[in-house]
């Protein structure tokens, strides 16, 4: 079937489909722009480093890799969100990171018909030893207009409980237990 479509396109006087799918040629000597990568420490409520988060900004999505060391979180599911300010200095509650990144004022929740907001991310699971290792993606950009690395930065915040991805304002995820500055 794949060989028939280009032949039909040629017979109809159209360009073959493969030609339409090809990227435009870059001028000689011009390399494609490399995606930006950024890494930051994740700290718990005692100010101790419990892991790292790395961010890679792609053409259409932000890829976030999270590695939390053993003992970093309580075992089970934890909500995580992008918060509007890159300040994790208030280790007791991480309140300085403010609310979720939410430029268009959408409702909270990946499962919400009126959402999600830009800060919403999938839950993360910590094993019996408190460690977690995951990779998630988000349409929120790292740089540029509305990006996480704006003038006051952003924060990746982890919560004590699982996010139900529906209820307001944070899906019942509870207290903030870990935080990573994005600047």
From TrEMBL:
Catalyzed reactions: 2 superoxide + 2 H(+) = H2O2 + O2
Cofactor binding, per record: Binds 1 zinc ion per subunit. Binds 1 copper ion per subunit.
GO molecular function, one term: copper ion binding
Signal peptide: 1-21
Keywords: Copper, Metal-binding, Oxidoreductase, Signal, Zinc
Domain Superoxide dismutase copper/zinc binding intervals: 51-182
SUPFAM superfamilies per UniProt: Cu,Zn superoxide dismutase-like (SSF49329)
Cofactor(s) the protein needs: Zn(2+); Cu cation
EC number assigned by the record: 1.15.1.1
Superkingdom of this protein's organism: Bacteria
Family per record: Belongs to the Cu-Zn superoxide dismutase family.
Functional note: Destroys radicals which are normally produced within the cells and which are toxic to biological systems.
UniProt protein name: Superoxide dismutase [Cu-Zn]
Species of origin: Methylobacterium symbioticum
Gene it is expressed from: sodC
């Amino acid at each position: 079937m794949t060989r028939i479509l280009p032949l039909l396109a040629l017979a109809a006087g159209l360009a073959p489909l493969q030609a339409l799918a090809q990227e435009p040629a870059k001028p000689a000597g011009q390399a494609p722009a490399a995606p930006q990568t950024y890494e930051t420490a994740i700290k718990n409520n005692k100010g101790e480093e419990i892991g790292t988060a790395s961010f890679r900004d792609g053409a259409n999505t932000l890829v976030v890799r999270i590695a939390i060391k053993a003992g970093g979180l309580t075992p089970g599911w934890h909500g995580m969100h992008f918060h509007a300010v890159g300040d994790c200095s208030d280790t007791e509650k991480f309140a300085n990171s403010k609310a979720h990144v939410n430029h268009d004022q959408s409702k909270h929740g990946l499962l919400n018909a009126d959402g999600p907001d830009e800060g919403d991310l999938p839950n993360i699971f910590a094993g019996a030893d408190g460690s977690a290792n995951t990779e998630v993606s988000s349409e929120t950009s790292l740089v540029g207009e509305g990006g996480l690395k704006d003038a006051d930065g952003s924060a990746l915040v982890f919560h004590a409980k699982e996010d139900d991805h529906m209820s307001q304002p944070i899906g019942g995820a509870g207290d903030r237990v870990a935080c990573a500055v994005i600047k």
